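To: structure subgroup
Subject: Chain for Friday's discussion

All,

I'm putting the inputs and outputs inline so they're searchable in the archive.
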Amino acid sequence: MVSPPQVTCFFHKDTNTCTYVVKDTATSHALIIDPVMDFDAGAARTGQVHNEQVEAFCKTNNLTIDYIIETHVHADHLTGANYLAQKFPNAKTAIGENVKAVQALFQQVFNLDGEKDNFMPDGSQFDLLLKDNSEFMLGETSVKVLHTPGHTPACISLVVGDCVFTGDTLFMPDMGTARCDFPGGSVDQLFNSIQRLYELPDETRVFVGHDYAPGGRPIAWESTIGESKANNKQIKAETTLEEFSVFRKARDAQLAAPKLIIPSLQVNLRNGVMPAAESNGTVYLKVPINVVGGNK
């Protein structure tokens, strides 16, 4: 019997994001999920403290990093995938194949020209585009890709051994689920995606993409499918689509746009690579006015 993978979480406090290093227990092979680049929005300065912690852990433990995987195109933090790919040059960067739809959508929002801005909505910025139900090995541990749209069209969850990494699809039971009001988001799709997750064994360990410590409890990132089916505040096993839809749409109507949505999308669509510097040697990001958000 294959031993459960070893999971280490690096929690990014500024964005409440969970970055995971997942190691095959029998070998040194590992993958990284949802790395984060530090970003000071007020000063428009990037940093790599969080990524350096992940890098140091991997190198100290002599891990062979095979993959750096994004669960979706994040709108609340800038990805650290490009930095880590340079530090682990044999690792493949990967994301769900529906990233192409997200790229095409936001190419219009940011008016990105294929030639001038060196941006094509074809997923070529990533080494691998992961298909629904595709499987690969991490050492002796199997990894299965589940397309779990709803939060965004490109969302995936990763079943790694006895674990599932749900990104922004399913949160801790007292947190609920992700918002569905981004372009391309869908309450119906999110409901169906969670039903798919609920088909996994109850003992499956669930590792979430974010945690906001509701009620002042300690930060947490691990539960189980069984716990979520029994106690998730938004979608239990018996919750109907109509019930979920009413709650989720009402909740989303109250939410402001993520603070880092404008810089995050422009960088994350490119897999963490900044746009080319202009003639003065400075990199610039665009700010579309009165386009993104609008609830608050």
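Points worth raising on Friday:
Residues 6-268 form a domain with the Metallo-beta-lactamase; Chain A fold (CATH 3.60.15.10).
The longest strand covers residues 6-12.

D.
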